[in-house]
Specification:
The chain is built from 17 helices and 17 strands. It is α/β, with parallel strands linked by helices and 476 residues long. It folds into 2 domains: 17-242 and 286-387, pyruvate-formate lyase- activating enzyme (Alpha-Beta Horseshoe), CATH 3.80.30; 390-472, Arc Repressor Mutant, subunit A (Orthogonal Bundle). Strand 5, helix 3 (109-122) and strand 6 form a beta-alpha-beta unit. Helix 2 packs parallel to helix 3 (109-122), helix 3 packs parallel to helix 4 (142-150) and helix 7 (208-219) packs parallel to helix 9 (288-306). The longest helix has 21 residues, at 67-87. It is globular, with a radius of gyration of 22 Å. Residues 35-270 form the Radical SAM core domain. GO terms for molecular function: 4 iron, 4 sulfur cluster binding; catalytic activity. InterPro entries: Coproporphyrinogen-III_oxidase, Elp3/MiaA/NifB-like_rSAM, rSAM, rSAM_sf. This is Heme chaperone HemW.
Length: 476
Amino acid sequence: MIDGSPYQGYLYAYPHKTAYRPLRPRPALRDVWAAEPTDALMLYLHLPFCEMRCGFCNLFTRANPPAEQVRAYLDQLRRQAARVGGALGGRPGIARIAVGGGTPTYLTAGELTEMFGILADFGAPLGAVPTAVETSPATATADRIAVLAEHGTTRVSIGVQSFLDGEAHAAGRPQKRAEVDRALATIRAHDIPELNLDLIYGIGGQTARTWAYSLDAALAWRPEEIFLYPLYVRPLTGLGRRILPLSAPTGPVPAAGGEPAGTGTAGGEPAGIGTAGTGPVGAAGGDPWDTQRLALYRQGRDHLRAAGYRQLSMRHFRRADLPDDDAPDYSCQDDGMVGLGCGARSYTADLHYSFDYAVGIGQVRAIIDDYLRRPAADFDHAEVGFRLDGTEKRRRWLVKSLLRAEGFDPAGYRDRFGADPGDDFPQLDTLAVRGWLRREADRLTLTDAGLERSDAIGPWLVSGPVRAAMAEHVPR
């Protein structure tokens, strides 16, 4: 597995939500949080609505819901927030706030104002802690972005994916370059300190030249952060439903509006695309799509470094001239997260929990409908989740630390767990032998060769029990 495809899965959380199972009996949130520190929590609010479902998206979201459902969702969100806040003892300490989805700015300006009111009533110190909100080119309108700024949003993240219309369309994201530029200008015109742009590489027909064009177009806006995502095609997504394993794309590539002169953009799809992200698709250098993605990743990494960006993870780049974050300390390895909304996760030291999860359109709608029908008392309990024993806690800490460019301090691991990470995880020697892990200034960090294989190293470090639970999950 470790020597197979470098693109096996994005381990953005551990354990993955597909390892969650119904909790029976459902534990009361008061008991779940009773022994937990609640003075420095991450607060995540989930809005499961978008103006469209992108072809690569496997998030829990519904496109173009009826207005009455959005109204009902905000009403239910307020009920849930009141019950969860009560279970945590009232007005917990919030160190950071993230609002995602879906696309939160699918809400109207008035609905966004109401959403921030729900956060404030929960105890979120709007304007006093880092607050991130996701948006899209179509919904980043002046009235909506003004509401974000008025309520202390410090970071807006926008998924551009490509500055070439044809490439965006090939990734299942129909958009126009003019709309992207308008959205970015709108965000920059408001008092929001940080802009993040998401770009995707590995799109069918994408070349080094078209990739450089999108990178330069992004850099022209001087974003504080840029995320570079490899394209994955997962079950039940738009691309996953229409694409079977194909041979390498051949034939002419249609022109796309806004492309640089003399280049083509996406037409066919790359090889090996059928179920990427669910398992190995071939050794690096052997599968054409792997070869394409790895080359484009390296190009993007080097391009951003040369432009003055620090690499924080395989995906995450931040402008090197920015001051260090002076916000309250928060570490996802150590601190808890409380989620609001039917697609939000919550983390304690012992239990990760959420509501049910699906990707397919019908199942997503059913889960949202179920959330809206629930009596308020239902929000006093955890619904589905995964209990972490001592071994899984150690593994989560390692994975969440190791996949960051800064790595981790083995002494900190020993202080926390009373053991040496090399004894608990002999796999670290495997990484070192391959030249993917180094000890530097009393820290263990991935080398460039290791960072670029984060999407193989992360899944490789998943425990046997979690892997088995994920394998039993039936996509729906």
